[in-house]
Amino acid sequence: MVQASNVPSTAGSAFTRVMLAVDDSDATIRAAEYARALFGDRAKIRIVTVAQNPRTLFPLGVTTQGFLAVAREEIVDDARAVLGKFGAMFPGTDVEFGLVDLSVHNGNTVDAVLDAASHWQADLIVLGARHHHGLLRWIEGTVSEPVMRRADCSLLVVPENSRVPTDRPPESIAFALDGSACSLCALRAGLQISTPETRLRAIYVVDRAVHLTDSTPNVQLERAFLDEGCTTLERAARICADQGRYAETRLIETHETRDDVPHTIMRDFAQWNGDLLVLGTHGRRGLARWFLGSVAARTVRLADTPVLLIRRRENSHQSAENGTHAE
């Protein structure tokens, strides 16, 4: 039985144009389920797949033009079938479709996904992750991670081995904050897919394993982390309250050695038994701004639940900063 989204529609939502990138993998099925649960009745949906160029799939010198033509026709037919299968998962929804044939278009799968999202002006790309290669099974680390690094919009990454159900909206959402305006944008965006019943948690990680310079005393550095963490969590609580939501907050610390921010986030998230983790991806590292793309990517690799990566668009920079200062 298809379960439609019960997330309330919100004017001015952060996600009004959602692009689902699909192949024929189980990971993509879980991603499509989650996209339907969250956005099926509250956003425009476009389902896009990529048909590989047979020249890149078979060894040079052992194929004829006739063989390549037949292979291309089969690959394109398979891609159309994939679009039909996933379209059937959105009954009653006005879904758009896109098929990128790499025999015609230059580039690779990553370029094709990014170009399709940019051309359609997607707010969000939904990807399945961690699956093995096949003719159409390209949503894996070799695709999802470059898309994470290069995309201009936000991403929702759904692992094939997700420990939480993907056929319904999350019952608990955690926000990992780093003190930057970007992470607060992520908090605001994530709140828009919550309900009054959703459990919310905001965390700030004090990175005790980092050493900026040999001349910086550890006590002084940790004090700076703690001060900013407390300020950030207080601000997050106010943002939630302004939206009629309550979020528990917690300041957590990495171990002093053999630890890092992604592992600390995932330990806390697992202990809390969260369903969806929300991160900002354009933070800039100062004393406590640790959400560079590499941290977000490593966190996604560790996650066994969906992860929402919020990328602040450049034209929203000033408004986000103004909102931060106003609080």
UniProtKB/TrEMBL annotation:
What SUPFAM superfamilies does the annotation carry?
Adenine nucleotide alpha hydrolases-like
Q: Per its UniProt record, what Gene3D superfamilies does this chain match?
A: HUPs (3.40.50.620)
- Which part of the chain is the UspA domain? 15-159, 173-311
Q: Which CDD domains match?
A: USP-like
Q: Report the InterPro entries cross-referenced here.
A: Rossmann-like_a/b/a_fold (IPR014729), Universal_stress_UspA (IPR006015), UspA (IPR006016)
Pfam entry (one)? Usp
Q: Classify the source by domain of life.
A: Bacteria
In the record, the note on similarity to other proteins reads: Belongs to the universal stress protein A family.
Question: What protein name applies here?
Answer: Nucleotide-binding universal stress protein, UspA family
